[in-house]
Amino acid sequence: MMRRMAILASLLPALLALVSAAGQATPPAPATIVVNYASTAKNDTKNSGEVTVGIKAGEVRAAIVWESECSLAARVNAVAAAPGVDQYWSFVSALETSPDGRPGIRVRYQRIRVAAAGPQPPEQNKWIPLDGVTAVNVTETSWRKNCRYKEFTIALTAKN
Q1: What are the respective helix, strand and coil percentages of the chain, to the nearest 5?
Q2: Does the global pTM surpass 0.85?
C-alpha cells in the first residue's frame, strides 16, 4: 500500500504537467497580411497598390492606406498617415486563435478623416482566418469631389 502511494506521489507532478499543457493552445505560426487598395474608376488603374505585413505570435503590426489629393498610397508598420492627407484607414492586427482552434488574425480598423470636424466612425474589430481568401473589405468615398474616382476599396487578407 505504501509502495503504491509512493508511486502515485512520484507520478502526480508529471500528470499535472500533462493536464496543464493539454489545456494550452499552441501559438499560431507566423503569417502574412496582404492589404490591397484600388480606385474603383475604370480609367484609373494606376491608382492602386498592395503592402504586405509579416506578423508573428505576440506581435502587433499595422498598416495604413491613405488618400491625398486624389492619390492612394499605403505604408506598413504605421498607425497614422503623414500630415497633409485627406483621410486614412488604420489596420492594426495580431495573431489570434479562434475559439474552435483555427489560426487567424484579429484586425481592428478605423477611418480617420483629417479634414473633417466632428466625430470619427467607431473602430471595427474582426477576426479572419489564415486562408488567404476571407477578407476584410472596405469601400470608401473619396473626400475630394474632383478625383477620377468617386470610391476606392481596401481588402485585407491573411495567410501562413
Answers
A1: 15, 50, 35
A2: no
